[in-house]
Amino acid sequence: MDELSAQTRAEIKAIVDGLAPIDKTQIQLLARLSPAGRLMANIRAQRFVKAGLRGAFRKRFPELSQSELNMKVLAYLTPVRIEK
Asked: Which domain, by its residues, includes 76?
């Protein structure tokens, strides 16, 4: 692998310094789970985030139906944008 330039190293350090510290207890708990258990933990976390977004959108857009709110959450989380 090629050596990283000093600028690249500085960019990586700036990104890493901006991250939250590692939660060692959380890592240990996840390591004890089976692959299926880790997947379920991920799915539960994803559902929690989506519910939070749905609640925030419900407050911001009270006139939208549940399916419209779900579509807004999906659009927010989907990086692909389809041109109309």
From this structure: 23-84
